[in-house]
Amino acid sequence: MDATTVSYLQTQSLGHRTRWLIALSGAALMFGLWSFLLGSADYSAHELLTGLVTGKGAAGIIAQEIRLPRAALALIVGAALAGSGAALQGLFVNPLAEPGVTGVTSCAGLGAVVAMYFGLVTLHPLTLPVFAIAGALIAAAILYALSKSGAGAVSLVLAGVAIGSFATALTALALSFSANPYAMSEMVLWMMGSLKDRTLNDLAFALPLTAVGLALLSSTGRGLDALTLGDEAARSLGVNLTSLRARVVLGVALATGAATAAAGAVSFVGLVVPHLLRPLFGHQPSRLIVPSMLGGAAMVAAADVALRLIAPDGQLLLGVVTAMLGAPFFLWLILKLRRQP
Amino acid sequence: MSVSFEQVSVSFGARAALTQVSATLEQGTVTGIIGPNGAGKTTLLRTALGLQPVSYGTVRVLDKPLSEWPRDALARAMAYLPQGGEARWPMRVEDLVLLGRLPHRAAFGPPDLKDRMAALDALARCDATPFANRRMDELSAGERARVLFARALATGAAVLLADEPAAYLDPSHQLRLMELLREEARRGTAVAVTLHDLSLAARHCDRILVLHDGRLVADGPPAEALADATLARVFQIARSPDSLGLGAFRRL
């Protein structure tokens, strides 16, 4: 080993990425806390935090049963969607792949609506997330089959548009047949996504299911890195592609399905977050999955805080905010990709 | 024998891609695999890697049948540079070369010093050290090809299979590539490379396998394997006398 090699190896450190990881975690915690402290009932931060621990009094009930689910779900939904986006982009080697754009969230929403409005939820509370996950799984499997048959980056997005529109139409159909008189107004909540009026129950199923999904996705980093060199080179490096793809599809379905069952179809988080983090962490898929989860958590919590600051009456939906930021960004990304050779 | 093909046949549906090919790849030698498009060159390499199941015959790697190799161990024993490979994300060059170390690495955790040394050594051998810290999309096609080649070298495998590595390279880079393959063979690696450039194959390979319609039609040192009769039969070409002494060919 010569002197230049030694000094080169020493100058390289993980410091820069670690610092950004800490900053993202800090941002997620900060916006989560802010979201927790924000609400129509006028309690001080001290009262709410004491209430959260003790559960006593009106402040305790509000802290534990209203504020906690909303703030925690914002973090969980953000982590689930952005982590899924980073993994899907790695699997399809396509920066446009994302649960919302590819129709995975719409299908999950359809599953949730079917479970909810046909009384299946009364059989068992878990039917809601299970149906949402099944919907997400179907969409992810269709996309995967298409990509395997050689569909390129643009075809994949077009297929996602078709899957998404079909799922949205079926959701509308399901709601118009349901006996619920408020179905039409609730449809908007499902299609745009919202964290309004979430309960501890929603949190109780979303947390473990998302955690399992994200754990699966975290295990795929190495394989997704190898896919950068193409399928055959990845296989020659000892990557089991069948297992890798199954883990991504299942992980995305679990995380996105559980998040959608809790908050409806929130789009573009999985598109924007990994893209913003690439300049900080590099293009390597393994380096983006965990940071994207943290960044997504911070972003959705921030969006949920922002929309309540803009419209304290609760009329602004989370999905509206993410789509208003995400859709122009998506168009810009397409233009940028077109310019590349 | 690093790799041996025994009566290997492969068919895609009704079409036979390889028919009873028996050949060996020896350690310390550069074996050139030539033949017209569709002759089965890539299929032969993919068969050796276990990427292509055989319909008949056996492939042995380091004297052990391919089916008995665990996935990880095989990935450490054989490195593969596919045709027209590209980095599909603009990764940092050193990180890309480190992908060649994946078969050696533990399930979790960053690459250790040994992996990074191997990657830097591979980059140095390919004259690519100056851009270790740059991104793949900032390099020229020739530079990218060298980095991808370094990725295959970084594995430190006993067998190196390269599919058309000389395509898209300018003559000077082609020569440098053949020198690198030669250096790798000198370290005891069995190197096999598919080539379209017959002069390159004749000058830089120890042995040449000529494939034609999935059959092995010649196997031996270049002078023998590239005999006029073989060239005429397989490629429908003949050596053409030329004043520049470039080793030109003409169509028959």
- Elements of chain B, N to C (H/E): EEEHEEHEHHHEHEHEEHHEE
**What's the total number of strands of chain B?**
12
Q: What structural class do helix, strand and pairing data of chain B support?
A: alpha/beta
Count of helices of chain A? Answer: 16
Largest sheet of chain A: none
List low-pLDDT spans of chain A.
Answer: none
Main beta sheet strand tally, sense and closure of chain B: 6 strands, mixed
Report how far apart the termini of chain A are. Answer: 39 Å
Side by side, the strands of the main sheet of chain B go 6-7-8-3-9-10
The residue-averaged pLDDT of chain B reads 91
How many DSSP-defined strands of chain A? Answer: 0
- Mean pLDDT of chain A comes to 87
In short:
Chain A is an all-alpha fold. Chain A has helices at 3-11, 15-37, 45-54, 57-92, 104-117, 120-123, 127-148, 153-177, 183-192, 200-218, 221-227, 231-236, 241-263, 269-281, 285-310, 318-339.
Structural features, described:
- Chain A is mainly α.
- Helices cover 79% and strands 0% of the residues of chain A.
- The longest helix of chain A is centred in the first third of the chain and has 36 residues, at 57-92.
- With 252 residues, chain B is of the alpha/beta class.
- In chain B, the strands form three sheets. Chain B has a six-stranded mixed β-sheet with strand order 6-7-8-3-9-10, with helices on both faces.
- In chain B, helix 6 (171-186) links the parallel strand 7 (159-163) and strand 8.
- Chain B starts with a strand and ends with a strand.
- The chains are: A mainly alpha (341), B alpha/beta (252).
